[in-house]
Amino acid sequence: MKYNFDEVIDRSQNRSSKYDERMKTFGDGSVIPLWVADMDFKTAQPIIDACKKKAEEGIWGYTSRPASYFEAVKEWEKKRNGWDVDTSLMSWCLGVVPALSALVKLYTDEGDKVMIQTPVYPEFYDVTEAWGREVVENQLVEKDGSWAIDFDDFEKKAKDERVKVFLLCSPHNPLGIVWKPEELERMANICIDNGVLLVSDEIHSDLIFHGKKHTPTAMISDRIAANIVTCVSATKTFNLAGLQASTTIFPNQEMKAKFDRFWMNMDIHRNNAFSSVAMEAAYREGEEWLEQLLEYLSGNFDFVKEYCEKYIPKIKPNVPDATYLVWLDCRELNMTNEELRNFMVKKAGLGLNEGWKFGRSLTGFMRLNTACPRSVLEKALGQLRNAVNAL
Predict the structure, then answer these.
(1) Is pLDDT at 49 greater than 90 in this prediction?
(2) Category of 237 on φ-ψ map: left (φ > 0), alpha (ψ -120 to 50) or beta
(3) Could you state, in order of their start, the residue ranges of all structural domains in the chain?
(4) Confidence (pTM)
(5) Who is most buried in 138, 221, 232, 236, counting CB within 10 A?
């Protein structure tokens, strides 16, 4: 089936937080929303069909989770990444962020430290500080638009006895980095050597471009597999975040049982009626849609890069190897973070993510969500071009 990613869909009528929360977030309900990391595309037809069939049943009571559910995850990981996962070590959760939050709660004590690599998904700060834990930043080092790990700093901070957990973002959001196996192995071994639990957020592992290959950190070695918790989900891949489901993969039954007990104590342990069938349909029948999506998103990256080079040279976008998020270097505009935010909202009419939230010491960056029809992207960049030219 041929999918039409150029179709513009009015999401302001479907209770979309990305659109409905513009006034609350930006103080302007008319900005083009290119912030929340979901897509303005319909998902794969087999997923829609599965949800329609479920809707027509008309009975959406408490939903069981058949063995085929985690078997679908296993088969997908094996096919896409070569990772042979034991389904008995998989747990369901509402989402990757709730899973990360629970893991921080369960494997640290108040006053302990959690290491993150900034700039990184802001919720990494949130799930740490919400439980009274201290964030330790291993800041990625930027040179000529490329970002790399400071391994000396990473090891130094891992040796701190109060650092109990390292939250890894792989592939990386917002920089779109696909970490090399040797980088993953070095980080993992440093963590293991220093008694730091490695938790790997791999939610963007299906959104890979430019011939790159995602490596699940757990499959690098048996030693690493025995000391890592991995979080995956089809929700980002297939634009299903509103259905709330993810899979957390543990190294042993004891850790899985502790995690499951945490959620059972709140009576949160079932898929809703629609996420159950949607996730399985995504893993089993969504690949055709995904391959077409990846081609379209890659074209969007090229469009942003070429447009900025030609018309807005003061703004330098990265071309990510993963995710659908473009990191914009706006430092040549010489604005403070507050000035840059106001400029994007009031002058360019754009709702973007502020870069400082991904790394609190940063100034002059924004994150742009390119998972939208190209005509929307063209309109947004045109508004940005006019705003910059008017400075």
Answers:
(1) yes
(2) alpha
(3) 11-44+288-389, 61-284
(4) 0.97
(5) 232
